[in-house]
Amino acid sequence: MSFQDHFSKQANIYLQARPTYPDELFAYLASLAPGKQLCWDCATGNGQAAVSVAKYFEKVIATDGSKKQIDNAIATPNVVYRVGTAEESGLEDSSVDLITVATAAHWFKHDAFYAEAERVAKPNGILAVWTYSEASITPEIDTLMEWFMYDYLHDYWPDGRWYVRNKYTTLPFPYSSIDTPKLYCKMEWDVQHWLNYVKSWSAYNAYVTQHNTHPLDVLVPKLNNLWPEGETKLVTWPLHLKCARLNTSYKP
Asked: Domains of the chain by range and CATH?
């Protein structure tokens, strides 16, 4: 199947720039799984979620359609990285206790992915998909970034991004969802780290490709007035998590 590759060009910076997920997320997901033998981390990117969930499972198979992302992934003894799509994983039937999809399900061909998840999951295996929505820093910075993301860069986001904008409320999910706790990503960042995070966005790179200029030229002068160089700020992203037990409630 064709693979929507929005991140290979920025794979190096992606590894350094993205926020990390809280450990309580992975402890919670492990507590739901019927076993701790195997987790499939689908669309692993740089392996950030795979490395974290590996603390709770004997083995993690982490796949991504981008070879460049796999080449830049974080090496961990019990994580096996493979190039593979969400819709064609190459995993064995009924082999997986937990399937995790960290901030990527909005790019998938959903019917094909859910069929694949059903195929590889053990009975009562857990599927967990999540994303984070816009960060909270200060009211002034939040207003500026809202303008930059959804006014200035509006036309450069791929279609799947709007599922994130809607906090996964409109993401196709043909299951009875499990009630989940409220969780957050929290990072102490300086302004340079924040700008590197912006550079990892698909819309940022689409803008650069089309115009051969950097949209940061517009953002930085405005941001400098609100976030002095060298000053760290708490950056908080709410997580939006959907979980279900597979082979029990699938409604194709």
From this structure: 8-245 (3.40.50.150)
